[in-house]
Amino acid sequence: MTDPRIAELRDRVRSFVREEVIPAERELAGGAEPTDELRRRLQQAAASAGLLSPTAPKRWGGLGLSVSEQAVVLMEAGYSLLGPLALNCAAPDEGNMHLMHKVASPEQQERYLAPLARAEVRSCFAMTEPSPGAGSDPSMLRTSAHWDGEAWVINGRKWFITGADGAAWAICMARTPEHGDSPAGATMFLVDADNPGMQVVRHIDSLDRGFVGGHCEVQFTDCRVGPEAVLGEVGKGFAYAQVRLAPARLTHCMRWLGLAQRAQDMALDRVTEREAFGSRLADLGMAQQMLADNEIDLAASRALIAQAAWLLDRGERASAESSIAKAFVAEAVGRIVDRAVQLHGALGVSHDLPLALFLREVRPFRIYDGASEVHRMSIAQRAVRRRTAARSPQ
Amino acid sequence: MTDPRIAELRDRVRSFVREEVIPAERELAGGAEPTDELRRRLQQAAASAGLLSPTAPKRWGGLGLSVSEQAVVLMEAGYSLLGPLALNCAAPDEGNMHLMHKVASPEQQERYLAPLARAEVRSCFAMTEPSPGAGSDPSMLRTSAHWDGEAWVINGRKWFITGADGAAWAICMARTPEHGDSPAGATMFLVDADNPGMQVVRHIDSLDRGFVGGHCEVQFTDCRVGPEAVLGEVGKGFAYAQVRLAPARLTHCMRWLGLAQRAQDMALDRVTEREAFGSRLADLGMAQQMLADNEIDLAASRALIAQAAWLLDRGERASAESSIAKAFVAEAVGRIVDRAVQLHGALGVSHDLPLALFLREVRPFRIYDGASEVHRMSIAQRAVRRRTAARSPQ
Amino acid sequence: MTDPRIAELRDRVRSFVREEVIPAERELAGGAEPTDELRRRLQQAAASAGLLSPTAPKRWGGLGLSVSEQAVVLMEAGYSLLGPLALNCAAPDEGNMHLMHKVASPEQQERYLAPLARAEVRSCFAMTEPSPGAGSDPSMLRTSAHWDGEAWVINGRKWFITGADGAAWAICMARTPEHGDSPAGATMFLVDADNPGMQVVRHIDSLDRGFVGGHCEVQFTDCRVGPEAVLGEVGKGFAYAQVRLAPARLTHCMRWLGLAQRAQDMALDRVTEREAFGSRLADLGMAQQMLADNEIDLAASRALIAQAAWLLDRGERASAESSIAKAFVAEAVGRIVDRAVQLHGALGVSHDLPLALFLREVRPFRIYDGASEVHRMSIAQRAVRRRTAARSPQ
Amino acid sequence: MTDPRIAELRDRVRSFVREEVIPAERELAGGAEPTDELRRRLQQAAASAGLLSPTAPKRWGGLGLSVSEQAVVLMEAGYSLLGPLALNCAAPDEGNMHLMHKVASPEQQERYLAPLARAEVRSCFAMTEPSPGAGSDPSMLRTSAHWDGEAWVINGRKWFITGADGAAWAICMARTPEHGDSPAGATMFLVDADNPGMQVVRHIDSLDRGFVGGHCEVQFTDCRVGPEAVLGEVGKGFAYAQVRLAPARLTHCMRWLGLAQRAQDMALDRVTEREAFGSRLADLGMAQQMLADNEIDLAASRALIAQAAWLLDRGERASAESSIAKAFVAEAVGRIVDRAVQLHGALGVSHDLPLALFLREVRPFRIYDGASEVHRMSIAQRAVRRRTAARSPQ
Questions:
Q1: Average pLDDT over residues B12-27
Q2: How far apart are CA B232 and CA B100, in angstroms?
Q3: All partners of chain A with 3 or more CB pairs under 8 angstroms
Q4: Which of A130, B333, C254, C339 could pair covalently with B260 via S-S, beta carbons 3.0-4.6 A apart?
């Protein structure tokens, strides 16, 4: 990345993360979720540093970075578990901002997107359902909404809704029947947190703890919203999910890769300090192998992200490329952190260092936003279609 | 295993674990370490069922099983995180009983081993040290003891001392100078918990939480013990460590493999219940691949344990075989649990199921009792020596 | 294996292979298939040494070893690519002897099995078909036979029929319609090589070259055989295939594992002789890792074979266990030889050593006798059934 | 790659390879090395199509592509085993052209580079030595040269010298003592094929067969050359080796990746044609997993090559990046071809398809041009140095 403006921004984010954010990680000790108080403190610091909302359009107060530029900045932010939160570019808000920017009406943008981009509120995205509902296979969506003549009435249960507790509003995905000119399908609804029909049932106690507002189970019971709550158009929910998913997957990769780089830096420090069997760890072949495999995984991850970002910036959908990047990076990040733990020995599995926490945080990434197996299925199917088409006579 | 006596014992352990022990796992919710109160309750139930201390000699009230028989029983016990504790065959007590049985004087056995085999007390084994002391490389031992004319005086710091908090006594490994006829080397000392020179500094907050008494940091400061505290002979500490290690590694493998079998059973249940993409998970190729890889890993682990156990029962040292089993099983168990998590999707990383806890518990096994890399180094060195010897002219 | 009789036999096979067989490997230089002349020479030497036909029943002149004993002897034989041929326990004859012993009528045994066990002739097993016929999925069998009132008439094409060129007879698997009391299904036929309806079309030029008589494509065109040519009973072909497969898979594993041990021994020799970066290769961590991984793969392979052999000797079908062993060992052997090649650098890919040839020979083992994926599918399905049954109320 | 000029060139190369080059692969049947007659025929066709010498500077008649542009064209060329040869961008000539362009004197360029770029002659690069000489560790160089007052006299043995038989000249790397102002070190010499002191001893029979002129063993015996034969300066041989290596590694990656793409295309064709277990292979999960892993490996390889190429085009050395790309791509290409073979079943290991040949061709790539382990060692060492520097106070 040679643009001096971005290089300068990257350096500022790097300093900010090391000086302001990493010290705050101690507040996650013992597996505590970050609090809204911590969030506000960090976001105010980021705002003072001019680093808030790098992915949001300038019009809404963000830095308006291209996807390629986001890659640079979000990796730096991800160097701390709290960095993306501090910069207001963490999931799910970052993805919601993108979706609202692309799909919402001007009124919806003013009401929902603007305060989100200013980090005044948080939001959530209510799509995933517990078994036997929509998990890996979105077509199994069971939450439904129907128009009763006066309002849309939503019923169903969602879970692993990140940040639901404390969010000002939710985007809720529900199955909808044919409605006017709109075909049967799925529709996204904007639901205010104070809607009595939407209730956060519990925080799901999960392996990862790094998200403010937790991963929640959310119940929709006769939840009534007006026609203005429809995000975009009725029946287009699955299409909008795709609008959100490809870039959201990629920003996930950027953030997690930053954390993997941190783990590798810790490992590189460790091997120059620790000795065993008469050598520095850094000079032992098996340690070198782990360090080199980490470097390779980091380089391949960065390169795959860069390629997909470049395509997205050119206006392509990059579905295949973002799927490939997600599948690879999610697994690579897991390997990198795991090797860093191994290189630290017993210290690596203690919480004296944050590595053990990183290990917990990154594991779900192979499941969230499309399990590795689902991505592989779609990657294979796309490859088969592409090849079949290439062989067909025109 | 065709011995009907062992098959019957296995079935009794199986029932006991499912009926009495697994329900108690809920007391570990939220990452709580098992308490001594829970331990006593479970061990009384095991005693009532005639299942206490399967690895301890009959003379001391145990079941006196051979290593091959232990393999059967400890895998069943390991099906629950609390099973080995319930049966009084968990680390470190199980290894300490073995060591005391082999090395301790009759007086030491009466005083220390007998109450341990009856599960009246717990013990600990204080060998590992924080950097730059003895971790993977035991020759880096820094804790030292010297004879001041009246007593042995031990100084040094230990960490990851499992079960230290609440243990009635510790075996402490310390570097000792030449002493009488004994060469310089290492010596093991029995230290009572009320010795003012031994102090539990803290519980190390670790990825795994399943051990009663935690993983502790322990300080020895001018810790004075009499000559009767020397376990076995002065200067033979490293040799005794080998006596303890090979079988202790293997019982570790047995226990963890039981947990891996539990994870696989949960995965097998899941895939028959959950559908996606129009099929039962059980009928999807990628799920089958994970299930099959688990079966292969389980079978290979069982087979390696069986082979090493058979050799130990024949009186061989089986150092190479137990090292190979440890390296393979520790990694296989991690893979098995990881695949079971993946097959459960988001549910797998939630603590609604114990799988996420299992994932945390098994990760350190690749580090504890010899990191995989250290075992590989010694496996390779042994293979080179064996081959070189085979080629030499006689 | 402690039986001194078997230990002595193992030592004799070991000496025979090193002294008589390995020197003959030079006749495979340049990728030449072993000739029948070479086969006869080696088999006469083996007969003189009392080592011929270790798997054949004593009644037919073999050594009558149990499966567990075969494991010991066939691994030693497999130490050379030509060892199994020399001892007359190579595929496909070894599997055919087993099948004929279990299923053939006394007359068929006298006529076909007896000379095979005496190594007077070779045989072949004609089951696999080119696409779209029976490959991984035997239910796709297209070769058919019908009774025309006087004879069975076989039509179809087979390929990868090992040893077909020069075989005295073939077992041909064909789809048969309902016939008398026999249901529609598959039937095995004994076809003499001089039957004009059976023709060896070509040797398939394959990655592996180590089988006498090659891998052939064989055409059956109105191939007429009498009722006495039916092996066992009409319609039971698929069941007999299972009778042959489980032990044949296991003997495959034994033989290939012997070759893997040879590759590892070569690697162990190499690392003590070659230096780089100021050390013996044997002292470099990455080399140690490869050597250790080979030791682990060898030990796990041996242990899985031993377990399945033990079950077969007890009269169990051991389908799951032999499938697991086949899947694991086929992949392990590939990894072991690959690592041995890598440890030899450029020398390893030259044919100055036989390693490059080994690499070619072992690759197809992941496909022959059930591709790894097919085994994994059936391993998973069995595990699901077993678990479902275990949960069912009785 | 959006430059329409390059897209057009890529399409022309693609057509040329499919129409003119792939049909010629049949001449490699049975493991035959390509002949110089075949080479000339293909290169004339490429010259007619305006596609000769894409990496050579325009001044010498090449296409003068940047490294990033080479990536596009060489991957297309590599789609056939004979493509790089046809376009005169195969190893070792392509690397030699680069080195001569960077280091040779104008006279040397006129005499050696010009005819090479016009594909009138072939060349070779004589660096690697048999044990105990320079293999993975170049510092073990044993071939030596000394100035006897009238000429340089070279003595030593080289092996795996690709293309030596039939080459018009060689670049020979030899250890040289202090000479004038030049320190002791290594020096590169240009040796004409008719020099009586240089002799091709044999073609080494190797796993891969795709290089014209083979991999040869070459003996230098009192090989006398004049001062004008010194390439660049005396004593700078190791530095020049680096000049050649980084880009040569990368062009290796490009070519092999083209072959991997071909293997994947064959696999994609196969899975839509072949059925098993009642489904197209393309719809079976385990097949999808292999196809998807191939897509991921291809994408990551392409991305790593693109990143390193971009750096080289900016004038950076990109040593770390080209090392990472080499280590990853060499292994990825092996995995891709291996999976393609597996998806073809028995057909995949037959030479009815070129896949079995591809498998043989790509295996040595993990050894040639720096074994994976050597690259990992240097990748780790660089990472440690970079991190140590980043932490140092300025």
A1: 97
A2: 9
A3: B, C, D
A4: B333
Under a CB-based contact definition with an 8 Å cutoff, are residues C90 and C255 in contact? Answer: yes
Chain B interface disruption, residue of C376, C377, C378, C386, most B CBs within 10 A: C376
**Chain C partners within 8 Å of A284 (Cβ):** 285
pLDDT of residue A94: 97
pLDDT for the residue numbered C1: 53
Q: Report the C-alpha gap between D104 and D55 in whole angstroms.
A: 17
Q: Which residues on C lie below 8 Å from D132 (Cβ)?
A: 274-275
> Which residues on B lie below 8 Å from C79 (Cβ)?
none
Between chain A and chain C, the number of residue pairs with CB atoms below 8 A apart is 17
Neighboring chain A residues of B130 at a CB cutoff of 8 Å: 347
Q: Structural domain of residue A338, as residue ranges?
A: 239-391
For residues B341 and B261, state if they share a domain: yes
Under DSSP, the state recorded for A179 is B
Q: Which residues of chain A have pLDDT under 50?
A: 394
**Interface predicted TM-score of the whole assembly (ipTM), two decimals:** 0.96
The answer to whether residues D382 and D389 touch, using CB atoms and an 8 Å cutoff, is no
Structure tokens at A289: 């192998």
Tell me the pLDDT tens digit for each residue of A169-208.
Answer: 999 999 999 999 999 999 999 999 999 999 999 999 999 9
The CATH number assigned to the domain holding C381 equals: 1.20.140.10
Does any CB of chain C come closer than 8 Å to the CB of residue D8? Answer: no
3-state secondary structure B235-277: CEHHHHHHHHHHHHHHHHHHHHHHHHHHHHHHHHHHHHHCEEC
A281 in contact with chain C, both atoms CB, cutoff 8 A: no
Assess whether A174 and A260 both reside in one domain. Answer: no
Nearest to A81, CA basis, from A250, A261, A210, A266: A210
Per the CB < 8 A criterion, the answer to whether D189 and D172 are in contact is yes
- B–D: how many Cβ contacts below 8 A? 17
Which pLDDT belongs to residue D1? Answer: 53
- Is residue B232's pLDDT more than 60? yes
CB spacing of C289 vs A287 below 8 angstroms? no
* CA–CA distance, A155 with D200 (Å, rounded to integer): 81
| Predicted structure pTM score | 0.97
* Chain C closest-CA separation from residue D8 CA (Å): 38
Ranges of residues in chain D with a pLDDT under 70 are 1-2, 393-394
pLDDT tens figures, C292-311:
999 999 999 999 999 999 99
Question: For residue D31, what pLDDT is reported?
Answer: 80
- Which pair of tokens denotes residue A194? 């104070």
Q: What is the rounded CA–CA span in Å between residue C104 and residue C229?
A: 10
d(CA B127, CA B139): 11
Q: Please tell me the predicted confidence (pLDDT) of residue A244.
A: 92
The tokens describing D217, both together, are 């063993």
Instruction: Output the CA torsion sign for B73, B79, B80, B81.
Output: positive
Query: What is the least distance, in Å, from the CA of B201 to any CA of chain C?
Result: 36
- Which of A372, C330, C379, C385 lies closest to B291, judged by CA? C379
Cβ proximity of D341 and D313 under 8 Å:
no
Give the number of domains in chain B: 3
Based on the fold, state whether residues A342 and A223 are members of the same structural domain.
no
Same domain, D229 and D243: no
Please list, in sequence order, all residues whose beta carbon lies within 8 angstroms of the beta carbon of residue D302, skipping any fewer than 6 positions away.
A307, D71, D75, D257
Is B288 within 8 Å of D285 when comparing Cβ atoms?
yes
Specify whether D202 is located in the same domain as D228. yes
Q: Would you call B381 an interface residue with chain C, using a CB distance cutoff of 8 Å? A: yes
Model pLDDT, residue D275: 86
Tokens 């290593």 belong to B67
CB A259 within 8 A of CB A337: yes
Q: Does A287 touch chain C if contact means CB atoms closer than 8 Å?
A: yes
